[in-house]
Amino acid sequence: MPLSYPRVVLLTILVALSAAFEFVPSPGRCGDARQRCVPIRECAAFRTREQVLRRRPVVCGFSERGVEVCCDFNWAAAPGASVQTTEGPPAVSDAPLTVTDGPSAVTPTAPPLPERCGEPRTVRDDEHPTLPKTDRGFLMRQRRAVIPPQLDLSHPEIGDQIEPDVVGGRDVELVTEPPSLLGGPRQTGHRWPWMVLFGRWTDAGLGDWFCGGTLITDRHVLTAAHCLRPEEAGTVGARIADHDLTLPDEVQHQQRNVSGIVRHPRYLLGPQNDLAVVRLAAPVEATFAVQPICLPPAGADHLGRDVAVAGWGLLEFGGRTPDILQEAPLRVTDPTACEAAYRRVPQFKRRFPAGFQGTVVCAESRDAEPRDACRGDSGGPLMALSDGSYQLVGVVSGGLGCGNPEFPGVYTKVAAYRDWIVEQLT
Questions:
Q1: Which residue numbers are catalytic?
Q2: Which domains does the chain have, with CATH numbers?
Q3: Which residue stretches does the UniProt record annotate as biased composition, category Basic and acidic residues (predicted)?
Q4: In the predicted structure, residue 10 carries a pLDDT above the cut 60
Q5: Cα–Cα dist 229/297, whole Å
């Protein structure tokens, strides 16, 4: 029987790319225990021709779904799994939740940090031809901040405190997945696929959004300690990599229940040690739209580096909350000068009894425009591009007002807590 036209095309493609593939001696099996044999379409590591040529996939078999390759678990979609996964409130019969307000026990089987993380996303001109571009590839929409007159060290704690959030930013642009080697639908995401938004379960579902976070593994989110208490694990949920909160199908975001919350043991209801690790009830699927960010090396210093903050917080102090994810360009400033500025605030000694102690990152606007974090964005990421990947420099913690040029935003320094963070990844 003569070969049909689609079969001829497929064979031609396979022959042309045969040099980029390797083959295992035992079909259907992979030599690495961390991998499994899946159709190439279901492995996010080989979505484009460039990825195939660069990583040389190992072919482990053939099926009616096409070529099968050895794929790391972090990049292989579960068979039959949908991209947008939504969970509901935990059932009463669920396993006991983690309620320990301190470090979890360290076990020798703690999962490692992901090998692939923080991959940059670029917006191509041909995808959004009507949007004006800057040299950094994004549209700037200026919003001026309103500075509160009182001199009061604001910290995003529950009550009458001021909570950080993005001011002087702009909408995060969408990014379309590059064409895959074998065709198929392309996913839509955005520049920050590790963005997390925490909400509370209500009769209408997950909503009442209150804090941000950052995906650091397929099952762990880093956020601010003041955002979540351990006993709240069963009442909140996490939405990962959403964009416009009013459009449920705009991007392939995912949603998970929370099964455990561990605050830093030295957190005492203030900006010092304002850090928590959240464990998701089920791991997320690594896709084009959803990926973790990289942690910086222990002790890393990003002084003077260009960074970005993102979140769904207020557009200005006392203003409205946006539906679309916002981002603002910032720069890491001198911590000594930052601490000296905050020492003028009467609450400083109570909030930081021994000073910053190298556990805080301060960031301010890169230009004369007021840009900052403000109410609604606590726990979200401060990000820097380093060696080709984005690193989580800081976690939104506190500040004085929104966009006040005399008081940079205060972020928990992730590099100062890296060892503690890794210990909680169980």
A1: 226, 274, 378
A2: 5-75 (no CATH), 115-213+237-252+284-413 (2.40.10.10)
A3: 116-134
A4: no
A5: 27
